[in-house]
Amino acid sequence: MTKKDLLSDKIRLNIGGLDFVTYEDTLKRFPESKLANLSTSADNYDDDKHEYFFDRNPVLFAFVLDAYRKGEIHLPSDICGPTFRNELEFWELSLSHVAPCCWKALYKRDDDIKTVHKLMESYKRNASMRLILDYHSTWRKKLWLFLEDPYSSKFAMAWVTFISILVIASTVAEIMLTLPEFSEEFDDSEKHAVDMVLAIYEKTNHTTTRLHSMKPNWYLNTATMCCQIILTFELVLSLLVCPAKKTYVCNLIRISVTLGYVAYWVSYAFENNLSALNSKALVFVYVICRYGAILRLARLFYLSKGVPAFNVVGLTFSSSIPEFKILIFLLGILVCVFGYMMFATEFAGNENMGSIFATLYWALVTLTTVGYGDIVPYTRVGHAIASLCAVCGIIVLALPVGIIASTFNKFYNFNSYVSTHVKLNTDVLKEIEEQGNAFTCKKKRIM
């Protein structure tokens, strides 16, 4: 083959203004690719310069051309994986040609993109965020910002601080109401009503004596009621002025808090009129409402409004569901295995482990490193099984913790980037605002 023939086998490629020269045989290494099927009749071929022009990134193309020379695709770790995948798609190169040593660089950014998208969705679901740039807000929107967004003004921060203090104070007051020091004796008519309730459920005299001295202290009970009045008023007001009620009512925490306050006021009405509890059905309703009032404690999550890390914790848990599934699955298997092993070893001489349920309970307590000590093995074989069970519990619990901690760290770091991007990028804020206003527009069309 002459020197002229060798030169004719060369192909000149102009990539974004930068010339690349290679042999035709080199480009045939991946027959399915675009470069392996170049034609002089194509629109991007320059007859005068005898070259093919592609308006692509020459830096990325250097790694593409290097793949033809080596027979496999390599890319540096500092290149964005999704961008490089788009480049491979343009040149019609299969991802199967990427070397295993570069898979991490090719796919590691996908998790970062998912993290950013979840954080952006969190911002879009925040009704107050959708109104920050609305300079022509109505009084309802301004009131909504005042109630829900502590960073909208100094007065809003003061109000949220006041509400947070009330939430904490009411919670502490209800805890104190269960102490004997803050309880009083019921009067005779109230004791008679309590006795009627206990008679319906056939409770013992010990329970009767205890309940007779569990009347809440008047001063503490009044202070708790005043806190609940303000908190209930704030909850109802925020619902009335909310510009996106669909988003508001679909929030699980708000639903729990609303049901909790309804249950509280129903139970409060019964407690101030004990004589009305004259049937088993009414007593049942009272008991349900009394325990249902616990849902008000979900209001404690409102304290996270001014702390972005709390939102990151929620996103971490929702993103770590696969890890939690693995944890529960492994824990369930080990509970069954060690529970059955301990039952087979101890059932003959250990009365506390006379059933499978007892040994399963022991295995669960041991694997979770709680170790109440109420059920323990007596035999040497049982001690060995218990030791192995304890070691397995530490390993199983430690496996997903590292992954969850890494997920939290990633969300926490990216949250600062996303919040800065949202604040500085006007287009993103407009998109968020338009999505928020869509709820209001839709409601107007329906009405």
Structure explained in plain terms:
The longest helix has 45 residues, at 380-424. The protein has helices at residues 3-8, 24-27, 58-70, 81-90, 103-125, 139-148, 154-176, 188-201, 205-212, 218-241, 245-249, 252-271, 280-292, 308-319, 321-346, 356-367, 380-424, 426-446; strands spanning 10-15, 18-23, 45-46, 51-54, 183-184, 215-216. Mean pLDDT is 79; it is low at 1-8 and 435-447. α5 crosses α17 (380-424) and α12 (252-271) crosses α13. It has 18 helices and six strands. It folds into three domains: 3-98, Potassium Channel Kv1.1, Chain A (2-Layer Sandwich); 139-306, no CATH class; 319-434, Helix Hairpins, CATH 1.10.287.70. With 447 residues, it is mostly helical. Strands 2-1-4-3 form a four-stranded mixed sheet.
